[in-house]
Amino acid sequence: MNGRVIAAARAKVPIENETLLRGYGIYERMRLVRGSVPLLPLHLVRLRQSAAALELELPSTDWAKVCSNLGRRNRIANGVIRVTIGDGFQLVQTDRLPRNLKTEQTQGIAVETLPLEYAAANIKGTSRLALSLAERSSNAEVLLVGRGGVSLETTRANFFVLSDRGIETAASPRVLPGIARGLLLEFARGMGIPIRFRAARLAESHKWKEVFVSNAVRGIRPVIRIDDRVFPLPGNNSVTRQLDKALRERMGVP
């Protein structure tokens, strides 16, 4: 915290801090792979953009060194690094990967829908009350649905559908410009798959061939159910699995 490695219990901020009182802060969650963060440069670009938008000070720091050192000190070579920039403080934390990650990646996930358009969705802000309440009410990851019944993103990841028209995904600023999302779109273009920056309508779900979500920590996870709509688990030669393989290779994830 603020350049010092300390025990989590000793990390404190003043009670009048704007991040504590109003959630005025930004953060990045990044995948730690073999002691380093392979997508760090991309995360830092988004972090700087968010800091500028909120007029938060982003210190000049050797983030690569900080992340690797923290992972080593906590004996975590493959895990998660979180950087939080708040009102007058900078906090870097490390943790292990979600326990159910492998299961979600291989067997897919089920999500419930909720009519909600998240304010300032294009900024990864620390104020996540609406998203947390949505997950608590359904006890699961939630797909946010915008005006006209369009699919935006989930409470944790960017959302994609594959149809005869190619890949469809909502565009920023209605959704977060995800780090993994940007790479997947790059890979898809290289595969010759058309991309439409369009929030797919749930009423058209019968036309969807594959459905998946992505973020930098959890990678790609197939979606096998949305409310009562069931989708097949993508096979080994599916677009979902091909994109997953390309992302893993880019990040050096086994």
Describe this protein's structure.
The protein has 254 residues and is an alpha+beta fold. The protein folds into two domains: 8-96, D-amino Acid Aminotransferase, Chain A, domain 1 (2-Layer Sandwich), CATH 3.30.470.10; 101-251, D-amino Acid Aminotransferase, Chain A, domain 2, CATH 3.20.10. Helices cover 29% and strands 27% of the residues. It has seven helices and twelve strands. It has helices at residues 18-22, 40-54, 63-73, 101-107, 129-138, 179-190, 239-251; strands at 26-32, 79-86, 89-96, 109-115, 142-146, 150-154, 158-163, 166-169, 195-197, 210-215, 219-226, 229-230. Strands 4, 5, 6, 7, 8, 9, 10, 11 and 12 form a nine-stranded mixed beta sheet that branches. Strands 1-2-3 form a three-stranded antiparallel beta sheet, covered by helices on one side. Strand 7 (158-163) and strand 8 form a beta hairpin. Helix 6 crosses helix 7 (239-251). The chain starts with 17 loop residues before the first helix and ends with a helix. The model has no long low-confidence stretch (mean pLDDT 95).
Write a compact overview of the structure shown.
The protein is α+β, with helices and mostly antiparallel strands and 254 residues long.
